[in-house]
Amino acid sequence: MNDMTINQHSVQAPSAGDINPFAGVDFSELEKSLRRPRTLIDLLMSGLVAAMTLLALIPLFSVVWMLVWHGGQRLTLSIFTQLPPAPLEEGGGFGNAILGTLVMVALAALISIPFGILSAVFLAETGPQSRLASAVRFAAKVLTGFPSILAGVFAYGTLVLLMGGYSAIAGAVALFILMLPTIVLTAEDAIRMVPAKMREAAIGMGATTTQTVWMVLLPTALPGILTGVMLAVARAAGETAPLLFTALFSNYWLFGGGQVDLEQPTASLAVLIYNFAGMPFENQVSLAWVAALVLVSLVLVTNLIGQAFSRRQIHE
Amino acid sequence: MTDPSGGTQISQPPTRFQQVVDVVFRRLCHGFAWLSVLLVAFIVLKIATAAAPALRQQGLGFLTGTTWDPNTGQFGILPEIWGTVFTSCLALMIGTAFGVAAAIFLSEGFLAQFVFRTLKVAGLEFHPFFGKLPDQVQAFLKNLIELLAAIPSVVYGLWGLFVIIPLIRPMCNWLNLKLGWVPFFGTTLTGPGVLPAVIVLSIMILPTITAISRDALVSVPAKLRMAAYGMGATRWETILAVILPTAARGIVGAVILAFGRALGETMALAMLVGNANRISLSLFSPANSLAALLANNFPEAAKKDVAVLMYAALVLLAITLFVNIIGSVILERASSGLEGRR
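Predict the joint structure of the above. Result:
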């Protein structure tokens, strides 16, 4: 009570029967005033935090603006059909790099989706409390923070040295390692989010675990699982480091003798950007910007599709 | 179909075939779970065994050597370790300041309140459409910050090369001219260097810090906040004295995970740090990092040098693994700690 701000002059001796509980309280003192340091600091800090948040977003706008500005100028259809130009050559495109990225990401997805979802089913349904489950979760977390270049080092050490050359397969394996943890962890969450009464209803009907998983859990959790898959695909599509010395680069299409040849060096959008950004030729640098525009659009669209799926996830 | 007296029943015990399928499927899930653990073990083992010859030949001197010369067979990665840690620490400082600020801004409802007040002026704050606007604007801003993480690192590298370096070069060289005696400004910025790499790296780790710190701030029990407000604390007194200390573990975990991310980041550094085998305190001098060393040397490595590069990869693996595990443990404890207090 002593700390209360009471204006001494207005305090009057309370007379019997006429007690004013607010007597002696100076209401202007209780109002928010910018002249008091604590309110001023409050306002300044709010302004500072707002400014820092906006400042943090400037790079995003700057990147998007530069991509549209530099990349948009040369964005024509021929970009998608032509091959990368040689130094000092005019024109050209990167159709083979787009194809290479799509093929390698698709191949990586083909391995990691069944692998990841089955592991997630184990984590969420068939053995959630087991020791193995906590080991899998730990492994997935380790892989989440795994530097992407080390996935490339691993694929190089196993596949490139074994097969005797750079290949799309080695690139896909490196990408698979990076996609796996995202798929496992998001799929586990999605399956866990399926309302318990649906699971129990299935078990009550006499369904086996397998039937519960295939007919109830996976269909209900599908939007959440697809969100994870889309996030993993978007991440893999943008990865450069694991492809640098697994798929390397190629100036040619991914075809050998009329059919798709996965055992040769393969171009990808990300490695093309890296290679061309460091070249002293204007044509290559501007192609790098166009490739970056295409890559970012690809990644953002995949991300948005994933977010659209996540809104359809059924929560308990 | 539902006639109970005979015919088909809705529920029936699984047939023999279904039981076999069930067992097989469960074994399959079990098998894949084992595989994913074995995969991680195999990756670590593979890199370790590939590095073994160099480990035996180079020993621990590899970690303290300062020259990298494949021609004479002299290999040392001290400059790379220094560059990795130096750039990551600097990026962490910038990224933490901005990332935590953004997390506070997003979690304490500053923007939603601002929009709400603006709507109130127009008398629209409970309008069926505009009434939802404050939350929507808030969610939109959160998505924008998360988009920063969606941009591929090689695109950040390209942006750093052609936007950041030209932008900061005059300022850096002016600093060098006026304050050249300060070790941090000891050299001029001629192109790629530590500072551009640090700036781009801090942008790349910011979404990680913001997302995890925001989760920690949001999960602070509401009654703590209400109690502080009820005592007459201003919003920032509440944030600084109650909310941040309560969420501290989560924020520290976020920062450590971001540190792990920064240590392993490859492309931004390979493109922006300059790839010079040099130990310097100067922010404008070119340097190198472990990941960039691998990215630059692996593609044209001779067979006998692969083991040395694998050794460097093993060092990177050990550092990032260590940092990441510490970060995860802290985060796990942070969330369980809050649950206990609730």
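Strands of chain B lie at 68-69, 74-75.
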